[in-house]
Amino acid sequence: MKRIQSACLEQTILFSASDDLSPELAAKMVRQEVESYKLSLTRKQVAYKIESETPQPDGSVIVKLRRQYNFYSCGSYLD
């Protein structure tokens, strides 16, 4: 019989800006969306670690993170 002892996801998420808005407003909305995403992970009690958060010239943001999968133990993945 096999059992999962630990599981972790490595994700790269692109938070992109809307083309309909001014660049400043679009960049502000993207930053708010990134913060909202982090807050939702915390609220759901999902363990995560941001590896990098890279702003792009067009106002979008690329976030690379490791996060807990289905409430399994993450072992040393998030150390």
Overall average pLDDT: 91
Count of structural domains: 1
Instruction: Name the overall outline.
Output: elongated
Question: Which radius of gyration do the C-alpha atoms yield?
Answer: 15 Å
Strands side by side in the biggest sheet: 1-3-2
Question: Percent of residues in helical segments?
Answer: 25-40%
- List segments where confidence is low: pLDDT < 50 over at least 5 consecutive residues: none
In short:
The chain has 79 residues and is α+β, with helices and mostly antiparallel strands.
What does this structure look like?
- With 79 residues, the chain is α+β, with helices and mostly antiparallel strands.
- The chain has one domain.
- The protein has one helix and three strands, in the order βαββ.
- It has one helix at 23-43, and strands at 8-15, 48-55, 61-68.
- The chain has a three-stranded antiparallel beta sheet, covered by helices on one side.
- Strand 2 (48-55) and strand 3 (61-68) form a beta hairpin.
- The radius of gyration is 15 Å and the shape is elongated.
- It starts with 7 loop residues before the first strand and ends in an 11-residue tail after the last strand.
